[in-house]
Amino acid sequence: MDIICVNGPINAGKSTVARRLAGLLPGAGFVEGDDHDAPEGADLDTVIAGGLARIEGLIAAAAGTLVIAYPLRPQDHARLAAAAARRGVRLFTATLAPPMAVALADRGGRPLSAKERERIVEMYAEGYAAPAFSDVILDNAGLTPDQAATVIAEAVAAWRAVDRGPARR
């Protein structure tokens, strides 16, 4: 069992790539991290807290590999890594990092709101596209979702091949 998070700013392709990645990994389940129990119009901190609590619960109950699409701050990564560690597994983080101009463009069939565009600019400034905790950072601007998922699957395979200590034996 592994916990894999596809990270990145809004409109980087997290959900699409994570779904494709889950399809490439035998027995993996996909988790849309943006699904949360926060009330409509809740502030960002409430939404993040609800999303993370839900993801932690799914990690605790997981019977197999989970591929999660969710943007992570360093403290969020630490929280999910701790949830994975409680299960005796590690967290693999792949960050999608297209150039900001690509993330700001309407893609994937849904137009971005002004608020989303503003948040994208903030997320790039806050380092969501280049976090130190990421196991792989991928500029996916020139890749199809399937190609990006394949690159990440190869990185996961290499990561899995590394000796992971007694908890994995």
TrEMBL record:
It comes from the Bacteria. InterPro entries: P-loop_NTPase. This is Shikimate kinase. It comes from Inquilinus limosus.
